Each structure stands twice: as structure tokens, then as C-alpha cells.
Queue: 3 jobs
Job 1
Amino acid sequence: MIRKPKKPVTLADIAAEAQVTSMTVSRVINNSGYVHAETRERVLRVARAMNYRRNGLARGLKRQRTETVGLVIGDIANPFAAELTRGVREVLEARSYTLFICISEHTAKEDVQAFDSLADHRADGIIVATRASQTANERLEELIDSGVPVSLIGRDFHHPHADLVSADNLKGGYEATSHLIDAGHRRIGFIGVSLTQGLRLRRFQGYLEALKQHGLSVDEQMIVGGHEASDQMPGYSTEEMGYDGMVKLLELEQRPTAVFARNDFTALGALNAIKRAGLRIPDDIAIVGYDDVPLAQHTSPTLTTVRQPTREQGQCAAEFLLNRIEGDSEQERVERTFECELIIRESTAQKQADFPRSEAV
Amino acid sequence: MIRKPKKPVTLADIAAEAQVTSMTVSRVINNSGYVHAETRERVLRVARAMNYRRNGLARGLKRQRTETVGLVIGDIANPFAAELTRGVREVLEARSYTLFICISEHTAKEDVQAFDSLADHRADGIIVATRASQTANERLEELIDSGVPVSLIGRDFHHPHADLVSADNLKGGYEATSHLIDAGHRRIGFIGVSLTQGLRLRRFQGYLEALKQHGLSVDEQMIVGGHEASDQMPGYSTEEMGYDGMVKLLELEQRPTAVFARNDFTALGALNAIKRAGLRIPDDIAIVGYDDVPLAQHTSPTLTTVRQPTREQGQCAAEFLLNRIEGDSEQERVERTFECELIIRESTAQKQADFPRSEAV
DNA sequence: TCTCCGCCTGTTATCGTTAACTTATTCAGC
DNA sequence: GCTGAATAAGTTAACGATAACAGGCGGAGA
């Protein structure tokens, strides 16, 4: 009679039951080495009957790799992170690695905790997609120095042995802003950063750059909505930031005729604030978002935005990482920047009927 | 000279350097047992200098627990999952467990993979928040039978040794629908399920129940938007489902005067479809969502919806799980159902000015 | 002086798996 | 019949950490 013990079944248990040694069982389980067909059958039967699950700890300890990759993201519930994850997963699954995700809620402390957890549990490599911070960068450097393969997505941090994937958000921000300028706008607000803090945000730099290039001056009053706390960031509820920011802009004596929002959710908040105020989009105020979340094509008006190839970034980061894991962890760093694409929709259309209006998908 | 080897530093390495045995180093690292203050200092100094990271595999193997919990969710990029995760994390962190998240993208196969990965890597327990499926349920049962502590959130699966946390979505759906009926609506559509598949969705059952209780008949034409494929579900892009579903409803000869959407994103899609068609909300069509995502209070009109205490569910599931982990894994199952709350906003308001309109937050 | 207990450290064995090596057995080819 | 390759197992020793036990030492109390 085969028992179903509370203590997890081990190779030795199966071996005893099947009248072989645990080495043979191991060979069967891993499909390696020579095992007689009959023996294999018998062992498999017993293993199944006993509901065997292999012990990844022991296995990993002995083999010195776990076939596991960690992904650290700051914010779940964010279409960007979701799409990134999807890309990462696709590649990992194809190469039969397991993905464990750690969330850091955008705080440096939790970032570090996530790194440590993954390193302690001997993930074979780590993909980091959180925003950079002093503390976290230091720990990251230690990890990389000690040989942990790391691949970074859109993170402002450089290390000779960590690969880097990013989107050209500087250019994206530049193009979004230029688009507004080309449409004749001269008073263009930015929602979603504080002036000081925003300098680390490429899309905001692109905004500044575009203004400068076109000979427009920067009006500090028109930059709204940043959180001043440096190590704490909000979750996905950035439409609140967009709403509040827009309200502030509308209260200005000379309100902007266009706004560039840090991301689509912020843009959505702003969009609703504008509607509430009884103004029309884009006639009274034009608006551009960033990220091209799925919702952006379902709002009314539909949202002009900048698309970055998110899934591709995830795939690329995963590929870089796997190459490093399976190659030399200290090999030269690889870097790849993806182009962004301005997607023009109704929220910045030149001539525009009133909203709501009838039909037209 | 202390080297920084490519091979990870072990206790033995530190021990050699600090002229003690690895047992002493272990005691220092874990702050357990007696260690002379001077020795402790010396060991710590060496450990830091060598950039020691403990090996969770070896540690876990020996101690037979990893202080790690796995969370399986179907869909990242979903405010519901995010909030749930937040609740789970809060509790785990307070009791110093590490959380690893696995995404299953709503397929049974990936669900099973996630369970296996977590079980293989000897997570101390698993929280499951994905939708039930035949295959996955079977594997889940095996795991629980073999002693893995499991706690379920809103999953249609029962087992004597797995705790269960859920929201009363039947009642939530009932109340949402009743709210519409009370407001005088008689033709009420449902967006987001197929009639057959929807029977597993409590909030849809609540809808049916409410119609029945109020003597209204179910019109199959008014139930739209389900995916027929049973093991595959879409990601977050359910606003598309909402949009398309609403378009179908609007094409009916007798279109509904109100719709209940399976979740807020679906509702948002529907909302935009209605606006596109030049109809007014709630005057022409009233609409109710589900989940109360943050965005729901920032749309125009703001969205009537059903709030479920999401974070609390996460916390509760985590607490149940930890009790099971630290107690008896085969103890009697605990169950807890949270009440939902109907949040009435503009999209179902009785009398309503046109949108967009001026002011009023 | 002797005993006992609190401190500090070391020794041993083990968690479950597998790499590397060893031992048989079989059988084709000369 | 002999050689050597292919097949089919078993044996041993780790992987890195720690629980359990075993001293040794010093000092308080009898």
C-alpha cells in the first residue's frame, strides 16, 4: 500500500517503493542517462501514485541554478507594466524559465527588498523595471558586481555588466510637444511632474527641449501635478493627479491651449476636468497623453498619445538576460533603445466637431 | 586581502576569513544563540566586506520552510488584482514573509504552471485568485491534499483544507440590477458574458435573480459580449468588450434603457459607445459598472458601480494563509464573505443635466 | 573545594538532489 | 572467444545552511 505522507515525498521514498536507488529515480524524473524502459515505467507509476513534486530547493542548490527569473516592477495595475510582463513571460516560457514577480510600489526600500529576496532565493537573473533611486541603485550595483545577471528596462542606471532596454522617451516627449506646437499652440502645459523632480523624466525633458527648439519660453506655472516626496510614488491612480493638475491649469489667468500629460491616465483625468469645466477638446484645449493604453482609443474624444513598443521591450530585456545567464555574466553590456510613435487621434485633431456627436467609430 | 569571488560567498568562506567555524557565522547572521560581542563584530565586518548574501535554497532546504508565499493572479494591469496584491503584501510584510507573484493570463495551463512553480520552489503557501477551471482545480486539489497551505480568493472551488475569501458578488449584482429596476428601468442589458458561460459569474447570477424577483423576463438578446472560448480570457482590454457589446445593444430594435456591465472597464467602453451614438447618460441609457476602480469617479458622467472591499480580501486571505502555515496545514477550513456596496453616481442618477456641463466635482 | 549554570564555540549529521565515478551486463564485430 | 562500446544500474560526495549535541571556561553559591 502506497501512503500519501504529510511530509513531502522524496526521491528516496519513491526509490524504496520502486526497488531502485534514488539516482535511478532522478534519472527517470529528469529524463537523463540510461534507464531500462520497464524500470522507467515502474518508477513513473510510483512517482505519480505518490504525487511526487520535486524539491526545487535541493535541486537548485545542487545544480547551482534554478531556472527562475525575477521581475521587479513598481506598479502592478498599470497597462504598461502588464504589457512589459507579457513580453518577458513569452520569452521566458519559450526557454522554460519560471518568472517570479516582485512589486515594489515605487519605494526605494521595497525595491531593495525585492532585489534581496530574488537574490537570496537564487533567481538566475533579475529584470528591473522600477524607477531608479539612490539606495536601490547602490544595492543593484552590489548584486551585479557579485555576478548576478541583471537586465534593466527604462531605468536610469548604468553598469558595465547590466544590459539596458529603453524607449526613446526624450524623442517621444519632443514629438508630442512639437505636434502641439505645429498645430499652432503656444501655451502648452505639462501635467504630472514637479519642475525639479521632472528632470529625471525623459518625456518631460523632451517637452522642455521642444519648447526651447521652437523658441518658446517655459512657464513654471504651467507645470503641475508632481509629488514632491522623492521616495514615494502613487499607484495607478494618476488620473487623480491629472484631474487636479488640470483644475489648477484652468484657474490660471492665461490658461494653456494645450496640455501634455505624463501618461494616459493622467491625460484621462485632465480630459475629464476639461469636460467638467464645460470646455471642448480639442477646440478649447488640446491634449496629448503617453503610453497608448488600450483605453486611449475608447475615450471620447479619443486620445492622441505616444506609443512605445512595450511588449517588445519586455521581450528584449528577457532575451538579453537569458543570454547573460547562459553565457558569461560579466560579458560586455548590450543596450537597445526602441523608437516611440506619435499616435494622432481626436484630442488634438485640427478641426473637430463638438462632443458628444453622432456616430463615427 | 579579501577577494570578491565570482562564485557566491558562503558561510564557510566567511568562517575561514574570520577564523571561526561556519556555525558561528550562521549564529551571527541569524542573530541566534550565544556569540561573543567581539566575534560578532569581526564576523559581521568580514561578511559585509565580502558582500555575503545568504543562500535561500540551502537555508530553505535545511529549515523546511522558505518564508515565502506565492500569489497567483490571472491578470496584472487590473486595479482589482493590484488592490488585492496590496492587501496581501501588507500582511505578509508585517510578518516578514516574501511575496512572489505568478501571472496566469487567465489560462488553465498557465494556472497549473504557476501552482507547480510555486510548489516546486517550496513556497510555504499559495494564495490563488484566478478563475476556476477543471484542470487547474484538479491540480490544486492534489497540492492541498499533499499538505500545501492554500488560501483562495473569489474562486469557485471548495476543499476542506483550503480557506476561502470572497465578496458577495451575487448580492452585489442583485443590488446593482435592483437599483436600475427601482429607477423604473424595465429593459436592462448585461455586457460582458455569454449566457452559458456567465452562469459561473456570481454578479451575473445576481442580475438574473433580480430580474426574476421583480417579475421581469430575461431577454437573451440583451446579454452580450462573452468570449466563448472557455480556457482563454482577454487581459485588461475589456473596455473593448464593453464598447463592442454596447454597439450590439444599440442596434437592437428595442434597445435597453439601462445596462449592467460586468466590470468598470467594460462599463467605460459601453459608456463611450453610448456617447459616440449621440445618446445621453443616464437620460437615454443608464449604466452600472462593478469594482469601483479609481477611474470610475473621474469619468464623465461619473460611474455608478459596486465596490467590493478588495484590499481587505487580500489581507484576509493572507492572514488565513499564515495561520495555516504557522498552525496545522490540515486544520478546518475558514471562510469569509465580504459585503459589497452599491455606489451611486451620475451614470444612474434620476434627474440629470446634460453632459458635458459646467462645474460640480 | 566542588558543583552547577550561563556563556561561547565547535562537531556532526542532515535537508533532497544530482554530478561524477564505478560496477555489471549485454552484444556486435573480428 | 576476446575487445570494446553501449546500456543499466549503484555508490559517493557534494551543494550551503543549520539543528542538535558536545564540550570548555569562568564564576557564583554552598
Job 2
Amino acid sequence: MPVGTAATVKSLCREDLEGLGAQIILANNYHLFLRPGSSNVKKLGGLHKFMNWPHPILTDSGGFQVQSLSADDVAMCKIDEDGVTFRSHLDGGSLHRFTPQIATKSQIDLGADIVMAFDDSTPPNATHARTLKALDRTHRWLSECIKTWKSSSSKQTDPPALFGIIQGGTYPDLRQQSARFVIDCDLPGIAIGGASIGTKAQETAENIAFVREMLPKNKPLYAMGVGVTPSDLVSVIKAGADMFDCVAPTRLARCGQLYHPEPKTEYLDISKSQFKLDKKVINSGCDCSTCTSGYSRAYLHHLFKAKELLYHKLATIHNLRTMIRTVEKERSQAIITV
RNA sequence: GCCGGGAUGGUGGAGCGGUCAAUCACACCUGACUGUAAAUCAGGCGCCUUAGGCUACGUAGGUUCGAAUCCUGCUCCCGGCA
């Protein structure tokens, strides 16, 4: 899932995304709640109409933002047993509140196809006690999300799917406890997020495989925030993940890192002066429109250095297509195996 | 020809007697990036591998304990008048 936090996959339009073979994109409840406002999006006919994307959309609840924003600045938000009071990063601090009910309602207003439970995402360095607390809260909040989702779904002709999120951080006992709880809720899909996802590819794969074992075969497993490089995707897919998203392909593209089958880094740094006179395309084996059209490394280097807007589009197309092609390849092989 | 202003590191441009290897910006180089406060952020950026040393603010001298900073000659640039 390409990440489109603010109802846009940065620098791309719908036609670009369709050309990449993107089937579903991700948007963010926290950001859209603050701007332009979930109720405004609802008035405009929902997210699909608003952003001109007639294909599936998953919204993240905002649980992750609560954690990542407060990690930088503790005054930005306060967590209590019922929810989170946070300051907007847009206007210097106006106060807002998310509870499981509000976060779920907001996502339903946005009109997402898949809505995520509002969780207390565990920071990577959390102690066992802190992780346990986050876990209890996440589970309690999940029950509240389910109530809001069910009552709202009964009034809709085409209700969204709700995914629960497994927490548990770096502690196997807590992860197992969380997996058990979330699976027993019998939701349309399950996600694993926060620190429980791990930071190393091997670790992440093990954690995913662990949950996959416990999960019924017909339930999709979503690995949140995973996939910095193509090889990450392969390892996570093999471990049993069905869905994933990561800001890396789009962000790395904007920062000059273009995926390339380099053994070490898996990308070229197009900002390097070594590309100044390089007539080759980024990756001759790539089927993205940037490569097949013949845009050279020298040209992309120039656009990057000159801070030209076209760079972002060409680079983002390349990185996202590389990721989607990786997934397509794995999918076709998986079908043969089955 | 006369009068006035100026020459600082890759570039623009601070500094106007010691705390100056020299604010800052740009450029350049490194590195980061995991449910996007990211066209972002961090570090480096005269030479020597460091404590430290060496060479430097157009150029040649001078004043001073001490000069990028003050004085003089020269070279070049810019403006005004001829």
C-alpha cells in the first residue's frame, strides 16, 4: 500500500498510481481529522470522491501519530485510560481529543474501506510494565472501537472492515497474549504494529510468522510500517504477511535514494556527483514509466540538485513501481506453490 | 586625468585592534530515513592523522606586545566628474 497520509501519495496523481498497479492506498486519520477535517471530507462525499481515488483506501487510526509526536515533544499529547488529548502540530497547539469512539467515527466519516483500531502504540524502548499497560489499553480500546464500528455498520449499505492491532512490543509473552486477544475478536483482519514488528528484517519475519501461525488462514495479516526495501517485502511475505505499507519508497525517493539491485544498500543515491554524466536509466531491468521512458540518471541527478518538482514524481514512480513489482512477483509465485 | 568606494574561504557576504581558521547563507561532501509534523533532518566543509601545529582575509612594507581590522606604496575592480 503506497502511503498517502494527507489524502495524497506525495507527488503522484490517480493516473500515476493506477499506472503503477497500486490496488489500495493508505491515508491517515490523525492528519485528515485536523485538516481538512473528517466531517468536511464527509460533506464532500468521502475520501474516494475527495481525492479522486475510486479504489480501496485504508486509514490508519492515528494511534501511531500519538506515539511518534509525543516522543519528540511530551507536551504534545497526554494519554489516559479513555483516550488521548493532543495538541495540533498545525496551529501551534490547539487541543483535540481522540478516544476509540472518536477515532473510529472519524475514519468512518472519511469513508475508508478498511479502518484501523485506535491503539496505544508501544515505543521501541518501552519497559515490560509500560508495554503491558499499553497492551491493556489497546485491548480495552479495541472493544470500544468494535462497538462504534458495529453500531455504525448496521446503518450503512457498504460498511468498512475493521482491523485490530496486536501490540506487545519486544516481549514474546505480551505479544502472544495480545495476539490471542485480538484474534478472538474475530475481526475481518489483523495487524501487527509498534515495536512488536521489530526493527531487523529477521526479527520482523519471526514476529509475523508467529502471529500467522495463530491466525485463521482466511484472515489477512497486515504488517504495519514494514518494507523499507524490496528485500524486506520478500522476507515479510514469506513469513506470512498479506498487507504492508511503508513511507520509505516515497520518502527515500524524495531524498534521492532510488531502488536498484545493489547488493548492499538496495538503492542508488542519485545526489552523488558520480551520476552527473551517467546516461543509463536508474535500473535497466525496471518496468516503471520513468525507466522505460528513458529518463537518465544524469537527468534525475540534475533535477534533484536543481530541486525541480518533476524529480519527485519520476523518482516516486520508480520506487513505488519497484515495490509493487516485487509484490506481484511474489504473488504469482505463491499461486504456483499453492 | 581628477574625486570617492572597494578587494575576506568554492560563491555571496559579516567582521572594523586581541575571545578569528573567521557569524550567516548558498554550493559541495557524509550519513540518516520503518502505521510521513520529512521536496526533511543530522554532521563535515583552509592544510596536517590528533593534544596541537602550519598557512591564510589582493600585494609589498610599516605601526603595535598583538593586525582581516590602523598607516603607506603598488595592482586590480566599481561609481561620479572630465
Job 3
Amino acid sequence: MAEVRWLTTDEQRSWRAFIRGASKLFDQLESELRTAYGLSRDDYEVLVALSEGPPEGIRMSVLAENALMSRSRLTYTVDRMERDRLLERVACPEDGRGLRAALTRKGQKLLEAAAVTHVEGVRRWLVDVLSERELKTVGTAFARVLEQVPAARAPADLLG
Amino acid sequence: MAEVRWLTTDEQRSWRAFIRGASKLFDQLESELRTAYGLSRDDYEVLVALSEGPPEGIRMSVLAENALMSRSRLTYTVDRMERDRLLERVACPEDGRGLRAALTRKGQKLLEAAAVTHVEGVRRWLVDVLSERELKTVGTAFARVLEQVPAARAPADLLG
DNA sequence: GCACTTTCGTTCAGGTTTGAACTACTGACA
DNA sequence: TGTCAGTAGTTCAAACCTGAACGAAAGTGC
């Protein structure tokens, strides 16, 4: 058992500022999307992923991966969105087990509107608040974090 | 209605990297705390806040503010933690409506153990992955974000 | 002292999320 | 061709969260 390497005062300060700022930013952006369009962050991520995929839709499992959601959570999210006619599930010709979620016209339209709100929020609360250099640094830093953090969160991964 | 100011390609890239990296980081850290100690991030935040407050405890409303939680969510969180004997609610002499949550010995011990796990995670997945300069920038950037985002998320705030 | 408004924390109803089972299908191997 | 492990997506029960409504106490103005 190695000695614990605590955070220095500066590291601690930075970490705390980050976790609080980021949490609040996420809450704010989600709150804006929800009150304006009734969309959760998950819903929005799904719409974005679909709009960037091919028109025939995206496999559920791929969608779950893209949006960093568990499969069951995605099932329920897609249920709700299908009920609201924002997307539809279509069978997958090449795999009888599979389904694709595909954007409807309504979903497309809603995303176009919501994206405006969302971009304004991202600008107002983040992009315009940071200098160009800061934003760039944040981007490259978290791209590296994303690479480092283990891809799967299977229980076995946590025991190493 | 003003023209939409979309994000530039670079801004978009930075924003995406950030949201994905940060989300994954949070998920990873929470997952580590949960499998090792059965603590959610909320639980952990409450323990930290209490350990930093006076020994007689902290008012529920202050705790909710510190941990960025709704009051009802805090009520349920504290219920669970009290059931597990990590803290206890004590009446508040100076305000008959109020309660303080105060750490028990067991809560104190658990936090001491969990903090080790948590710090290791923060180091491994963030602090050691970033340069000193990057971490500093992230800290100052999000401190500014925290300042800018409106404090309350009362419905009225969202209509302006 | 008495009405009024505000604040504190909880409770309620209903929606959401979780992780483990489950069904249906696929692909590999004999 | 038949078995069998593995995968896709769903479902289930239980835990969790949300926001509005609530009871109790505090503060305010008269």
C-alpha cells in the first residue's frame, strides 16, 4: 500500500473550482433546454447524434455509446422520444436483433430550434466567459482526459 | 430577434471535448466511490461539507446550497445517510424550524477512507493527465464560469 | 397581541434511473 | 445441422429525483 499523494493547495483549488463550475454549467444548460423545449440533456444528445448520422438511423447500441448512456436508460429515453414523435425505431435489415433510431421531421425541426438556444447558452456561460486561449486549453486538456479514462465501466475494470 | 452566433469549428471542438471528457470523468469518479464505499457523489459532497463545518453540524439549507442540491433531494440523501449512521440530525436551538446535520464518528471514518480513493482518482484521471499550466487554467476558467452562471435557478430567472 | 408573508424542511405523486434478469437472434464450431 | 457462447435490446423491481404542496415556526407591521 503506497503512501497517499494528496493534492496540493493549488491543485485542490483548481479541482474544486472545476467541479463546481462545470456542474453548475451543466445544470444551467439543461435547465434552459428543458424549460424552452422540454428536452433533457440526454434527449438533446440523442437528437444531435441522430442528426449527424445517416438518414436511415443509428443502432441503439451505437447511440448509447455516443451519448454515454446505459442501454436501459437509452431504451427509456428513446421510448419517450418515440412517443413524442421525435424519432422512430426501425428494424435493422442486416441484424434481426437490432434496431435503428431514426430522426423524424418533427425531431429534426425541434433540434434546429433547440440548437439555437443551446448554442446561445454555451456561448453566454462558457465560450464568451473564457479567453480564446483558455477555451483551447480546456478542449485539449479534456480530450486527453477522455482518452485516459477507461472506456468501459464494467465492474471488473474497477478492481484492477 | 438577433442573428444566431454559431460556434466556430474550433470552439465546437473544444466544447465537445470538454463535455465528453468532463462527463466521463465524473462518471468514473462516482463509480469508483460507489463500488468501493457505496457512496454517491452527493453523499460524498455532504460528508466533505460536514467535515469542513463546525462539529455541531450544518443547517440543511446551507448544506443544500453547498452541495448544489435541491432541498428535497437533500432530505432524501440525509435520510439515507442517517439510516446508515453516517450523520445525525439535531434540532437547532436558535431556530425552531431548523435542523443541523452533524457527522458521526462512523461518517468521519468513512470519509477519511473514501477521500483516499477519491483523491487517487482525481489524480489519476485529471491532475496527472494535465500539465500544471493546464490545470491552473482550468481552475481559473471555471471559477469564472461559476461566478457568471446565475446563482438561483428559480423559474423566473429563465424567462429574462 | 394579531394578521400577514416568508422561510425551513418534509412529504407526496409521479416520472426517471439502475443493474440484473430475460428474450430473441447471431455467429462459430463441430 | 445442432449446439452453444455471445450480443442486442427490453423489462422488471427497487431505488432515486423532481417540483409542487404542506405544516410549523419566524419575522413584520400595525
